[in-house]
């Protein structure tokens, strides 16, 4: 079965865009989980947009790991969605030696904005992302101004 609009289809349980089937109900919160580990799933920009469209309204999720994926430009959508989320406490968007989840200083600006407005978030792992000096400065400034 295929769905023309996966957001409106109550039968859609997962969407596979980058080789990994995203758990739609867990991301949205209709199948409540406090921890969702999506690290090392080779998720890309398309998956990032699906994740972003669902996690903003998830009122149960407390810890989300998106570590060691290839989110890059999709990090903006995820950060914007999490600006509205008031339950997520821990976010892991760390990279690794193969690549970065955050696309340089441009991506760092989105993370900094998230850190500046989301009062619920107490831990954000940015380790091994290639933010550059400008990117790290933007993030540290946002943290200092909290």
Q: What number of domains?
A: 1
Contiguous low-pLDDT stretches (5 residues minimum) are: 1-11
Total of DSSP H or I helical runs spanning 4+ residues: 5
Chain-averaged pLDDT: 87
- Specify the CATH architecture: Alpha-Beta Horseshoe
Beta percentage is 5-15%
Shape assignment: globular
Question: Which strands sit side by side, in order, in the main sheet?
Answer: 3-4-5-6
User: Kindly, what is the distance between the CA atoms of the first and last residues, rounded to a whole number of angstroms?
Assistant: 47 Å
Instruction: Give the helix proportion (percent range).
Output: 25-40%
CATH topology heading? Leucine-rich repeat, LRR (right-handed beta-alpha superhelix)
Output the radius of gyration.
Answer: 15 Å
For the report, how would you describe the main beta sheet?
Answer: 4 strands, parallel
Task: Please give the CATH class.
Answer: Alpha Beta
Classified in CATH, the superfamily is Ribonuclease Inhibitor
Number of DSSP-assigned strands = 6
Decide which structural class fits the backbone: alpha/beta
Element-by-element helix/strand order: EEHEHEHEHEH
Summarize the structure.
With 146 residues, the protein is α/β, with parallel strands linked by helices.
Detailed description of the structure:
By secondary structure, the chain is of the alpha/beta class. The chain has one domain: Ribonuclease Inhibitor (Leucine-rich repeat, LRR (right-handed beta-alpha superhelix), Alpha-Beta Horseshoe). The protein contains 5 helices and 6 strands; from the N terminus they run ββαβαβαβαβα. Strands 3-4-5-6 form a 4-stranded parallel beta sheet, with no helix packed on it. A two-stranded antiparallel ribbon has the order 1-2. It is globular. The N terminus is likely disordered.
């Amino acid at each position: 079965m295929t769905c023309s609009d996966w957001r409106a289809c109550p039968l859609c349980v997962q969407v596979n865009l980058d080789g990994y089937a995203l758990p739609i109900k867990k991301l949205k919160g209709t199948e409540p989980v406090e921890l969702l580990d999506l690290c090392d799933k080779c998720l890309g920009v398309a998956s990032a947009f699906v994740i972003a469209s669902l996690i903003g309204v998830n009122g149960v999720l407390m810890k989300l790991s998106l570590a060691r994926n290839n989110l890059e430009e999709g990090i903006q959508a995820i950060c914007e969605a999490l600006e509205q989320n008031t339950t997520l406490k821990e976010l892991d968007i760390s990279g690794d030696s193969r690549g970065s989840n955050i696309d340089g200083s441009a991506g760092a600006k989105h993370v900094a904005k998230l850190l500046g407005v989301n009062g619920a978030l107490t831990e954000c792992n940015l380790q091994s992302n290639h933010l550059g000096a400008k990117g790290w400065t933007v993030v540290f400034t946002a943290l200092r101004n909290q």
